[in-house]
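Re: folding output
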Amino acid sequence: MKILQLQSVCRKKRRKYIQSTPEITAENILNREFTADYFGKKWLTDVTEMKYGLEQKAHLSAILDLADKSIVAFVLGHSNNNELVFETFDIAHKEYPDANPLFHSDRGFQYTSKIFHKKLVDAGMTQSMSRVSRCIDNGPMEAFWGMMKSEMYYLKKFSSYDELEAAVSEYIEYYNNHRYQKRLNCMTPIEYRRYRSHTAA
């Protein structure tokens, strides 16, 4: 190998995560029906990891509406924990108290907790969960993460948490209010929401 100038490259060992026992599970009621005819009918949620500085980690939690593809609420935090997910939900529920959507997530420990289930029940929402190891069951949420990362996150290095947080906020404001989408009749998510609301009235 030395003579041929060959060098082995070892893949990093994946961390072994200890799976927690879910307190609450729900059926995949959404069943990949990724359309909705009005705002607040179906919400998707997820958490994604982002990095800044010297491989320090941040976690972004967000909720997406399937009717207009808008980001209803989001929170960037230092840890992927219950507080991050609960705060995201509380922001969305406070902003839209009359919305009682089908609420879909994966089977992450935050979403399978009794406390989170109670939040949904108290808000009049129905819980739906992806099947085990079926990322496509939450496809539009995964698509948003991919879009955001390719259009913003992968384009630069973030030296600090504050810099990353500002970039995330700026991108989501741009996405909701200024990024035109062909699937929304070439409107932005918020424009499309207003349009649908007007035509429905």
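--- second protein (sequence, then structure) ---
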Amino acid sequence: MTGPVADALARFRRSGSPWLDLPFFSGDAADTVAARVDERIAQGATVLPAPENIFNALALTPLTAVKAVILGQDPYPTPGDANGLAFSYVGSRRLPASLKVILAELPEAPAEPSRGDLTPWAERGVLLLNTALTVEKGKSGAHLRYGWAALTDQAVEAVSQREAPAVFLLWGAQARARAALIDTTRHGIVESGHPSPLNRQRDFPGSQPFAAANAWLAAHGVAPIDWRLD
């Protein structure tokens, strides 16, 4: 079966990305997931983000360029909001509440952030990877069990296996569960609760993850990340 997601996968494979060495792409897993998502499209579901953006996180941040990793759950379920990067928002309405909480922790946080497109971070070595690369309109979490999670696990392991140090920013229980995949003798972990306002423990505000990540990188001989978006 062919479809827009299978076509996007084929284009990504032609890119020659270092991520293509992951078992997810070299075996049948990627084709199986793409076929399942394309089946939903054939059934009338609106799948997000646009096909050309599904693999943006890997396309914009090659394995060799990763300095930091931020893991999300899945794309925003409203058309036009997501661009394939975890937490990144390109919609025209107010910024999502979780993203506002995240941006408030920036070293030079604007009083009222107006930009939610995190593409500059991806281009500077921040892997912004969701656990599921697709979602359905109005159905958050719809594709979390479709098989995308294997890609997330393998990507985390691939960064962990590198000699070059990187720092993992793990926010919330799902992200923190992947700490077991990380070699902490070579890489850093900055953990906190999830930035969602629904997090009753409120253990993300004030955690200063970006300053902590940069401090770890600098201590291990890696140039700090420029987290500015403007």
